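User: Can you help me understand a structure? I only have the sequence.
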Amino acid sequence: MNVQTKIARTPAAKVKSFIDDAMVKAGVPAPDAAKIAELMLEADLIGADAHGVFRLPQYIQRLQIGSTNPRPNIKVNRTAPATALVEGDNGMGHLVVSKCAELAIEMAKENGVAWVGCNMSGHAGAAGVYAALPLKHDMIGIYSAVANANHMPLAGGAEPLLGTNPLAMAIPAGEEPPLVLDIATSIVSYGTIKNHKMLNQPLHDDWMIDPKTGEAITDPNKSANALLLPMAGYKGAGLALMFGLLAGTLNGAPFGRDCVDFNADATKPTNTGQFVLALDPSRFQKLEVFKAEVDRHIRSLRNSKSLPGHEAVRLPGDARAKRIADRTANGLALPPELLTQLDKLAAELSIKPLGAR
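Assistant: Let's start by predicting it. Here is the structure, written out as tokens:
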């Protein structure tokens, strides 16, 4: 059953203003609060429902107790023409990673390509949001991160030593929507597990296992002691390991046993490592030719035969574009359980509740 079809929608502008006000109340300067609100709302608009306003109470808690710095002094160390390292000063991940993306775009305009890593960052929400930032400049974007908690084992392992370290890639098109792939290296993200727990919805039997028995865990209330399974078995675990080394170890940020679980311990800075790569396709061929070719391939692939029971094949970015259009026009379907949490947060912060905006 599609729960969202029965839920009244909340205009996106109201959600954005609520996030903005909450951030300011938690000590974040107004310009930074507006940037965070914009990026969090983007996660909701593209359909990453476990990474937008859903995360707001957790973010505010960390800001209030000082485990996230509300006023970071973000520093840039440009180490070569096409590389840089950003030191996030334990600021909100949205600010740190968007700075990485802005810098990567600027450097790619000069050099054709740029790789920018960061440390002392934090949870930044949906990976696809940051991979897509270079699209506004007709560039290809790639993003990955060390997830803020280890929930996944190595292939054949029984210990949670890997995060759901995501990969997001965005490729511009011409008349067609851009191709945007955003995947966790686990079968589902841990945010999806948290969302199911909040809604008391059973987990799929191929999402999590009991580390002691190897049996499937479908009760969301037992998820804290379960292991997320990597996508495609050893392949997903191998990708998570490699992305962890590139986003964490390469940037001087934690990986593996060193990671701080920000779901279990709200008091410690996470020192999250991430990276953004920007690539200018016009350095390879005329931009209009490349985008026209991407369009041609998209249309050819979209018109390919689908399996029985499927209306059409699925391309990365199709659903994203439709969700953005729908949710921008009609608002967000926020679950009643989340609205209750946000009302409680509004009372604690003395800001106008979402429903009163």
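Now, to help you interpret it: Residues 188 and 267 are 26 Å apart (CA to CA). Residues 73-186+230-303 form a domain with the Ribosomal Protein S8; Chain: A, domain 1 fold (CATH 3.30.1370.60). Let me know which part you'd like to focus on.
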